Amino acid sequence: MSPAETHIIKTEPEFRSLEREWNEFHDAARGTVFQTFTWVWNWWKVYRNGRNDLHIIIARIDGRLTAILPLYLERLGVVGVNLNRLRMIGVYETYGEYTILTRPGESREPVRAIATELARCLKRPGCDLVSLFRFPPESEAMGELMTGLRLQGLRGQFVPVVIKRVMMDLPPTWEEYLSGLSPNEREAIKRKTRSLIKNGAEVEVVGTPDRAAFEDYVRLHGESWKPRGVSGYFHSERFGRFLGDVTMDLMSRGQSRLYFLKKDGRRFAAVHAMFVNDQCCFYLSGLARNHELVSMSPGKVLLAKVIRDAIEEGYKIFDFQGGDEDYKFRLGGKMTSFAKAMFWPCDARSVKIMVFLGVQALHQSLRWRVRDRLVPYVKTFLPAAWRNRPSFGRQPE
Q1: Helices 237-252 and 37-47 sit at what angle, rounded to 10 degrees?
Q2: Is 64 strand, coil or helix?
Q3: Confidence (pLDDT) at 26
Q4: Cα 334 from chain centre
C-alpha cells in the first residue's frame, strides 16, 4: 500500500466539488451528523467572513479518500498581538461534536500524514496555532492526531473535560429501554403520554423539508424561554439561518425530523432530532408554556417518542449533547465530556502564543468567577423571570 498523501482545500469551488465523494466516505466511515458535508458546508456558507480562510486537509491512499480534517484559518488580534489560528469548521456558535473523519480501524496512516501536514503549516509564517475543540476525549482518531503533532515537535495542551456531555447506548427494544429506567420515571412517561392523548394531543412528525414547520419550531423554542426573560438560541440571526438551511438539507436526505405535539391543529411542543448512521442526536426543543396541557410534561413525552423511534429503527446511540440537566439522566443518559487541545510551534512565536493563552485563561477564569459568584448574587435582586439563562439542549418540563 502506498503512503498517505495530503492536500489542502483552500477554495470554495474545490470544497463544493468534494460533496459526492465526502458523502460516500462519510457513509463508509459511519460518521456523525456534525461530520457530514451538509453540516460543514452550511456552516461555512453562513459564518465565513473576510478574516477567515478555508484550510480543509484531506488524506488519500492510492487516490482513495481516507481522512478529512475540516479547518479554517482565523485571524485574531489579542492585546495588540496578531495571531492566526486554525479551528474546526462548525465549532463557533453551533453546538456539536467536531473530530477528524476517518474509517474505524484505518486511522493511523492517514491521520499521521495529516498531523505532518499540520506541523508544516504551523512551522511556516502565517499560521501560529491549531485549536481542536468539542471532541470526545476517548476518540481514537483524535488521539492519533495529537500523538502525531507531538512527534512533529509541537508544543501542546490537552484538557479532557471542558464541557459536560450526556450520551446513551440504546438497547434493542423499547421494553428493554423502559425496564432500565426508574419505576417512577417509567410510570410517569406512560401516564403522561396517556393523559396527553386523552386530552386531545396528537404527535406530528415532519421528516421532509418544510420551512413553515421549522418556523413553528423556532417560535416554540423562543416561547419556552420567554418567561425567563431571554430569547433562546435563535436570537442569533446567523444561527437561525444555518440551522434552517442544514435542517432542510438533512430532511431531504431523510436524516432530520421535527417532532411536534399539537391540539386542535396548533403545535404547542417541539423537539428537533437528527438521525445519521448509528446515532440519533437531540438538538433543541420548544414549548408554549402557557398551553393548557403544559402540566403533563409534553416536552419529556415528545423526547421519549424520539428515543422510542430511534430504538425501533435500529439506532445504537442517543446523543443528548452538551449540558448535564437532570432530565437527561432520568431518561437513561450517562455522563461523558467534550475535550479541547491546542498545539503550536517551538519557535519565537511561542511568546505571543503564551500571551494569547494567558489572556484566554484569564478571560475564562473571570467569566466563570462572574458566573458562579457575582451573577447569583445579582440575580437575587432581579425579577424571577430574569433568574434563568438557557442551557443548550435543555428540555422544557
Answers
A1: 150
A2: strand
A3: 97
A4: 17
Tell which residue, 200, 396, 197, 169, has the closest CA to residue 294. 396
Whole-structure pTM value: 0.89
User: Tens digit of pLDDT for each residue in 84-105?
Assistant: 999 999 999 998 999 999 998 8
Q: What is the pLDDT of residues 153-209, one digit of tens each?
A: 999 999 999 999 999 999 999 999 999 999 999 999 999 999 999 999 999 999 999
Q: Which residues, listed in sequence order, are joined to residue 273 by a DSSP beta bridge?
A: 257, 282
Residue bearing cell 440504546: 170
Beta carbons within 8 Å of 229's beta carbon, 6+ residues apart: 383, 385, 386
H-assigned helices in the chain: 12-17, 19-29, 37-47, 108-123, 140-151, 174-179, 183-198, 211-225, 237-252, 298-312, 326-330, 350-369, 375-379
Q: Identify the pLDDT of residue 143.
A: 96
Cα–Cα dist 289/162, whole Å: 32
Task: Give CA separation, 394 vs 43, 67, 119, 166, 206, in Å.
Answer: 23, 33, 39, 12, 21
CA gyration radius, the chain? 22
Nearest Cα to Cα of residue 268 among 394, 396, 377, 140: 396
Counts of helices then strands in the chain (DSSP H, E): 13, 15
- Distances in whole angstroms, Cα of residue 372 to Cα of each of 99, 245, 358, 366: 30, 36, 21, 10
